């Protein structure tokens, strides 16, 4: 997931690509080793900078999708056909190659395991990236905070970490995963393709009476619509945290 870069008094570091895997046909999971990495909270992101031989420089921000793991972390990068950064990261960068990055960035859109309130996660497309970090961190820390994930994608082929999400939901009674398909539903699906709306959020998210923490991430229009619905359902706006990209 990419966003406009956030500036700050952060140090640029050299990161070496350790592993690369295909998440979907258009997205890649990149695991980096970063000496001196200070660690991160689930929901934070990093700024990535690429510099050409002629000095031209461009930077983008990508959410961290892994749980804290020493000096190593993962980014989930969606390939944008006319992008300046994602095609390089997805199609050119190979294990052993190095890039510059700084972070972690962000302190609002984060989940802290000390908070015992139930959690509703809502993702649109590649917006699953920072929410995946929350799911993985919860599991790594052995937290029993109940999580509900509502994930909107165009087709079954667009689901990030599909096998992992199925496995985690099957093995962990405290994690519920509900997928919404907007263009093409899988064969045998009980529901036709549809947009994510009030009925689904009300049914599969935690009720407002439970005072859950709500994290919504995706394209701007998607995030605004979903957050407005939660507020209309009676959720405290201060507990509905959003992250937009586009």
UniProtKB/TrEMBL annotation:
Keyword Iron-sulfur set for record: yes
Pfam families per UniProt: FAD_binding_6, NAD_binding_1
MF GO annotations: 2 iron, 2 sulfur cluster binding; oxidoreductase activity
Family matches, as InterPro entries: Cbr1-like_FAD-bd_dom, FAD-bd_FR_type, Flavoprot_Pyr_Nucl_cyt_Rdtase, FNR_nucleotide-bd, MRET, OxRdtase_FAD/NAD-bd, Riboflavin_synthase-like_b-brl
Key words, A-Z: 2Fe-2S, Iron, Iron-sulfur, Metal-binding
Keyword DNA damage among UniProt keywords: no
Protein name listed in UniProt: Ferredoxin-NADP reductase
Organism of provenance: Lentzea waywayandensis
Lineage, uppermost ranks: Bacteria, Bacillati, Actinomycetota, Actinomycetes, Pseudonocardiales
């Amino acid at each position: 997931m990419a966003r406009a870069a956030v500036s700050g008094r952060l140090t640029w570091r050299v990161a070496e690509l350790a592993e690369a895997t295909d998440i979907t046909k258009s997205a890649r999971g990149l695991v980096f080793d970063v000496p001196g990495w200070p660690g991160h909270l689930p929901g934070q992101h990093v700024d990535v900078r690429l510099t050409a031989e002629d000095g031209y420089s461009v930077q983008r921000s990508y959410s961290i999708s892994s749980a804290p793991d020493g000096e190593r972390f993962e980014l989930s990068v969606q390939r944008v056909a006319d992008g300046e950064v994602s095609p390089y990261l997805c199609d050119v960068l190979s294990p052993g190659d190095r890039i510059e990055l700084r972070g972690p960035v962000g302190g609002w859109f984060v989940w802290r395991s000390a908070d015992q309130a139930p959690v509703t996660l809502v993702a649109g497309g590649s917006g699953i990236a920072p929410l995946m970090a929350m799911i993985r961190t919860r599991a790594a820390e052995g937290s029993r905070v109940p999580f509900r994930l509502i994930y909107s994608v165009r087709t079954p082929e667009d689901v990030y970490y599909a096998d992992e999400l199925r496995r985690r939901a099957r093995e962990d009674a405290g994690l519920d995963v509900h997928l919404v398909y907007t263009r093409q539903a899988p064969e045998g699906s009980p529901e036709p393709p549809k947009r994510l709306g009030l009925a689904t959020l009300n049914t599969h998210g935690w009720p407002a009476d439970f005072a859950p923490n709500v994290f919504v991430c995706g394209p701007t229009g998607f995030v605004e619509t979903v957050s407005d619905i939660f507020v209309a359902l009676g959720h405290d706006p201060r507990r509905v945290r959003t992250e937009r990209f586009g």
